[in-house]
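Recall the central idea of this unit: under ordinary conditions, the amino acid sequence of a chain determines the structure it adopts. In this exercise we apply that idea directly, starting from the sequence alone.
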Amino acid sequence: MKRVRLGVALLVGAALAAGGCGSSSDTSDAGSTTASIGSSVAGGCPTDAVDVVVTVDQWGDIVERLGGDCADVTTIITGSSADPHDFEPSPSDAARFEDARLVVANGLDYDHWAERAIDTLDQAPAVVDGGEVVGREEGDNPHIWYGPTFVREVADAVTAELRELAPDAATYFDDQHAAWATAMQPYDDALAAVGTGAAGKSYAATEPVFDDMAEAVGLTDATPSGYRNAALNESDPAPGDIAAFEQALRDGEVNVLIDNTQTEGPTPVRLREVAGDAGVPVVEVSETVPPGAGSFVEWQVTQLRALAAALGA
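Accordingly, the structure predicted from this sequence is:
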């Protein structure tokens, strides 16, 4: 597969200042719906639209806005109806890759099924692999859409590849990228607001989904290491690790508990109960875009505002 790395993205990063509109999202067997994003800020596309497949919807809205009218974007997994880790594409899902000129994947073994689908094709598309773009390796935290810097690096890489695939629309894609960055302003404002309340404060997390964001706003990770490692490796934490987590909550070592609402089982339920009894505020986040959450910015800002409130910012 042809992959786009960070170095490619940086070639256009200086020219791509700010954010986007437009294109459409097709349906997936995992429960997506067709949704128009609206007309492009730069007007009609000056060339044939690029067929793009996005593996997971954490990136779908971003790619649609970067592509505008010059990209026909299909997102395979949308909403929370399928677990990307365990997803098995249906024949119709796999067929979506056949006409793609560009695939945008999260990488880091999060959507490994996409690589298998691409390997079966006679002519492989270009691939923007998010993990490779941001310089992480397999086994590292794959939830890179929660890293503000990572989001921009992947967006730069997508725009760079779109410009290469459709050079007649290069200026159009630059305009789309600039409009997208402008549309990210509420996200940037929310990050700044959280940062004012995060200094000197700590968090613990039922899962390491939000860790990149927590680090970006300046929170210290107080999650017991044994528990954290077990969660990152998708294994059950030892009883001693759970006990250490509960004690940290009771002892005031944790200022806020970050809870992934899509995590099932008795352990996160118990940790939320202990946090409540100890007066530790709980901030709910989700791994995938929940139904009705709106755009990427709307989804993220809702969570960041809840975090700011919990921190007294």
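DSSP finds 13 helices and eleven strands in the chain.
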